[in-house]
Amino acid sequence: MNTQNFNGDKKAPMKSLLAKCERKFIESSITKFPPWIQGYHLTLMTIPLSIGLIAFGYLASNNLNWLWLSSLMLFLQWFTDSFDGALGRHRDTGIPKWGFYMDHFLDFVFMSSVFLGYSFLFDGLNKTLIFFMVPAFGCLMVSSFLAFGATGEFKITYLRTGPTEVRASFIILNILITILDTGFLEKTLIYIFIIFFTALCVVIYRTQKYIWKIDMQSKR
Questions:
Q1: How does pLDDT run across 26-80, given as a tens digit for each residue?
Q2: Is the four-CA dihedral 91, 97, 98, 103 of positive or negative sign?
């Protein structure tokens, strides 16, 4: 059995727009959880929340007001994802390797559920673009995990943006769709996809350049 030191539960400093506010909120609230709630309970909550996203996305195809509940799923997943590891560290009851595996696996499941829910709202090219966002976001996650394997540094914020900002963006998008209908997004989705794909290329370029530099320093 592998007993070597594991650092997957120690993320690089969060450098995003909401990171400081989020950290203060977590630190001030971590003591308020009842003792029967454990970190792994919060991690596994992503499963029903993902199902909820898909269900409410499907229902929203007939009534956009269901997106309010999709936004609630996004908020609850932010909450549980923010506190699952923090609660284990605070109580010294964490299971870091299981948490690393399940937390990030379920993050991918949840992210895929976000786009699956949106796919019910569109047809044609826009539906195709929605589905292509799943591997695009997946590439970003895979890059983060491979960089962790190569450098020992686990980084989840890029270009001043992290998971919290992404969830907040989806909630804002839901509000706009509910108020304005899907027409405005149908006209802009291709540009959103191009911007995200460009940002993905920038992140991967910077990451490989950093790892290359580490290799060259080792050779010296």
A1: 999 999 999 999 999 999 999 999 999 999 999 999 999 999 999 999 999 999 9
A2: positive
Residue 209: both structure tokens together = 């350049």
> Quick check: is 4 in a domain?
no
How far, CA to CA in Å, does 107 sit from each of 36, 38, 174, 181, 204? 24, 18, 19, 28, 20
Q: Is residue 13 part of a domain?
A: no
Here the tokens at position 168 are: 């907040």
Asked if residue 6 is part of any domain, the answer here is no
SS3 86: helix
Q: What pTM, to 2 d.p., does this model score? A: 0.92
pLDDT in tens, 166-189: 999 999 999 999 999 999 899 999
What's the CATH number where 28 sits? 1.20.120.1760
Rounded to 5°, the CA angle 116-14-3 comes to 85
Where in the sequence is the domain holding 69, given as residue range(s)? 19-152+161-219
How many separate domains does the chain show?
A: 1
| Tokens 């379920």 -> residue | 106
Pick the closest to residue 55 from 70, 77, 65 (CA basis).
70
**25 inside domain:** yes
Main-chain phi, psi angles of 37, to 5 degrees: -90, 125
